[in-house]
Structure formats: C-alpha cells, structure tokens
Amino acid sequence: MEPLVSIAPPTPAPAAISVAMLPTALAQPRLAPVEPPGSPCRFCGTPLDVTFVNLGTSPLCQDHVRPHRFNQAEAFYPLHARVCRNCFLVQLDEFASSTEIFQNDYAYFSSYSASWLRHARLYTDMAVQRFELTAHSRVVEVASNDGYLLQYFVAQGVPVLGIEPAANVAAYAEAKGIPTLVRFFGRDTARYVAATTGQADLLLGNNVLAHVPDINDFVAGMQILLKPEGVITMEFPHLLRLMAGNQFDTIYHEHFSYLSFYTVERIFAHHGLTLFDVEELPTHGGSLRIYARHAAHSARPVSARVAELRTRELALGVTDLAYYSAFAAQAMETKRKLLDFLIAAKRAGKTVVGYGAPGKGNTLLNYCGIRTDFIDYTVDLSPHKQGNFLPGTRIPICHPDLIRQTRPDYLLILPWNLREEIMDQMQDIRAWGGQFVVPIPEVQVYA
Predict the structure, then answer these.
(1) pLDDT score for 20
(2) pLDDT value for 269
(3) b/e map of 284-296 (b: 16 or more CB within 10 Å)?
(4) Fewest C-beta atoms under 10 Å: which of 1, 33, 233, 385?
C-alpha cells in the first residue's frame, strides 16, 4: 500500500557560515536588555535595584471600562515590585498619580461587603470601650470611603470627621450624615484640620497606609493631627502573610507599599510615633492592626505583642534579601496552574464565570492573560461596577442574578479573601452541580 503522506528526500546540510560572512549588525553578540532600576525608596531614598516580583503590565485596577469607552485604548503600567536593601520596604514605582487613581470616579465602595461592615462595627465597639471615647472626643478617619465605619461611631454619639479624596464616594458618606473633607491626607491637610476642627483623640485608617505614594508626608501628617495623648490605629495587609499565602494578586498600582511590621515600626519611629500594640487579623488574607502614640506619651506602655512580632519577623529573615527571592517563582507557578485548570475546563466544554470585580482580581487576570476566552463574565454586588468591563481584560461585569440564569459549571472567586461569605451567598449553584474555584494560594475547587 502506498503511504498516505510522501516524504521528501533529506535536504543536504547547508554549508557552515562563518561570522565573517554575516552582516555586521548580526555578527555582534547581543546581551539581554537590563531593566532600569526603580525610583529611590519612598521612605529612605535608597536606590531600588532588587526585584521582588515582576507581574508585567496592567491598567489601573479600579478604572473600569465604561461601554462608551470600550473601543478606546487603555494605559498599561508596569507592575514591578522591588524591595529596598536598606529598610526592606517592598514597593511599586508611582506610574499613575493619586489624583488619577482616586479622583476619577473611584469605583470601590466599602459598604457592599457584609463581613467588612461587621469588622468595622466590632472595631468601633472595641475602640469606644478601650479608649473611653465619649461625646467630648473626636474621631478622624483617613480614607473614610463611603462612611462604612464612621457611621458606627455616630450611632454611639461620638463626633467624627472623615477625610476622603474620592468625591463621588465621599458624597455617599455625607448623605449618611457623616461630615467628610474631600482632600488627600498629609502634612498640609493635617495642619488644616487641626486648626479648623481640632486634633484627634483617635486617628484611624484602614487599608490606606499602603495606598499613599509619599508615606513620609502621610505619617508626618498623622503626627501633626494627633492629640498629645491620642491614639492612632492603622490596618494594612501584612507583607509576611502576602508572601506565605502567595498573594501576588494583591500587588496593584493603588498599593504603592507592602509592609512588614519591622519596616512600619521604623517609619513611625522616624516621625516621632511609637507602636505600642499590634494585632494580627484575618482580613484581606492576613492584616496587621497597629496602635501608635506620640513617643513622648509613655502613659501607654508597649505591649509584649510588639516585641514578639518584631522578633518573629527578624527570625524569618525580613532583613535578609534572600528571604524575598523565591516569591516571583511562586507567582509564576500559580499562573501556570490556573491556566492549566481553565484550559482543561474549556476543552471539556465547561462554562466558567467570575465572582467579583476587586483590584486583586484584575492583577490576577491581566498577569495570567485571562479574558473572555476563559471567563464569560463576572458579577459584583456593587451597582457602581455593573454594566462596565474589567480593565485590560474587558470581561463584562454583571448583576449576580445572571449566574442563576446561565448556570455556569464553575464560579471563580476573585476576592478570595471573602470566600466564605461568597460561597454562602451563592450556595444555590450547587443545585445544578456548579462548583466554586479559589485561585489563591493555588487553584482549589469546592463542590
């Protein structure tokens, strides 16, 4: 029988080509391009030349694409995090200004997470009792968003002031009866507030310390606005939990800094503030809540938890650059595993949709190159996001009711830190055999 495919006789090997026979431009050896170093460290000014992780490029994660802009190009910025070899602050360069990020119809509203509201209420109860706050006290929250937290102080009769740069978000707080100053926070705003309304007994900020490009101006502003005997509390994702949990998706342009307790303590001490207590929280994949006071106000002694966490971080190696070197490889492996899962699901004819439109989800999807070829759409409870498209990937953001109409096989939970809340809210997908997929720290499927 004749073969189905004819095979041509082998081609004679070409004659050897010497370097002298090549054009000059081709003959020269070419070295791999070396990336330029980042900007100086935003805390200590040391040149940044050590990579923590390079996640390619991505648009601003809360700059959702509106339908009328769908056919317009987006700006993509590098997501290259570096670690300072002096103070060990992990950070991104400032490619987009704070004004671009937070004052152009900002899309994040804190009040759409029931678990976050519960966290805020419990914090308020604790603070009122621990710091003996009354109608004669003053609570100031920096980055107060839509009044999600200050509303609980108001309910207990404690005077408040919110400071929030996003005017569209601040308007919702004002509608709740929460006085809100629409400004970025730093030395100038601190002096203005101190002169017009007085200093704060309690000055707080949740998930804002990582969001400020000029961290020295920000912390110095807190020192100015705080009463001599006042207290600061700040909550922010803990760098050590980010690394242990492979949470590379929490790196995005709105987060300029990624903070260990060791580095935060150095920053606050530089501005005359002492950290006298610290708590480790489960929120956002693992956060710290630090308690600060003026260094001169020794009436609040430093708790044993401060020394314990500092010692634990040092033992793990936070002051050794080798500690940070393995993180990039972990991120790449997670990318491969997620793509393996999605490719296998699509080849098996399965449908996959997303839940949520968080900043971390946009980093994950853009880094992995996941678009509507893998995920049909995503959903979000916030009406401020519905009807738009995710940045970069252009995945449509819909109302959660669409899931019950289309009955997907898999629901990819993008805000994985809210996994339990979302799985409880969407538990009826199990009725048609739908399953939940959590991508971080690695792909896990829950029936």
Answers:
(1) 42
(2) 98
(3) bbbbbbbbbbbee
(4) 1
Q: With pLDDT > 90 as the criterion, what percentage of the chain qualifies?
A: 81
Give the mean pLDDT of the chain: 90
Residue whose tokens read 């200004």: 97
Give the up-direction half-sphere exposure of residue 34: CA atoms within 13 A in the CB hemisphere.
Answer: 5
| Rg over CA atoms, the chain | 25
Q: How far apart are CA 142 and CA 221, in angstroms?
A: 11
pLDDT of residue 106: 57
**pTM for this predicted structure:** 0.86
Residue 95: count other Cβ atoms within 10 Å of its Cβ.
16
Distance from C-alpha of 336 to C-alpha of 392, rounded to nearest angstrom: 20
Do residues 38 and 48 touch, judged by C-beta distance below 8 A? Answer: yes
Torsion, Cα of 320, 322, 327, 328 (10° steps): 130
Convert the pLDDT of each residue in 403-437 to its tens digit: 999 999 999 999 999 999 999 999 999 999 999 99
3-state SS, one letter per residue, for the chain: CCCCCCCCCCCCCCCCCCHHHCCHHHHCCCCCCCCCCCCCCCCCCCCCCCEEEEEEEECCCCCCECHHHCCCCCCCEEEEEEECCCCCCEECCCCCCHHHHHCCCCCCCHHHCHHHHHHHHHHHHHHHHHCCCCCCCCEEEECCCCCCCHHHHHHCCCCEEEECCCHHHHHHHHHCCCCEECCCCCHHHHHHHHHHCCCEEEEEEECCHHHCCCHHHHHHHHHHHEEEEEEEEEEEEEHHHHHHCCCHHHCCCCCCEEECHHHHHHHHHHCCEEEEEEEEECHHHCEEEEEEEECCCCCCCCCHHHHHHHHHHHHHCCCCHHHHCCHHHHHHHHHHHHHHHHHHHHHCCCCEEEECCCHHHHHHHHHHCCCCCCCCCEECCCCCCCCCECCCCCCEEECCHHHHHHCCCEEEECCHHHHHHHHHHCHHHHHHCCEEEECCCCCEEEC
- The first and second tokens of residue 3, run together, are 């073969």
What strand order describes the sheet that includes 77-83?
51-58, 77-83, 90-91, 257-258
Which two structure tokens, joined as six digits, stand for 127?
């603070």
Q: Which residues contact 288 (CB under 8 A, 6 or more apart)?
A: 235, 236, 238, 259, 261, 264, 278, 279, 280, 281
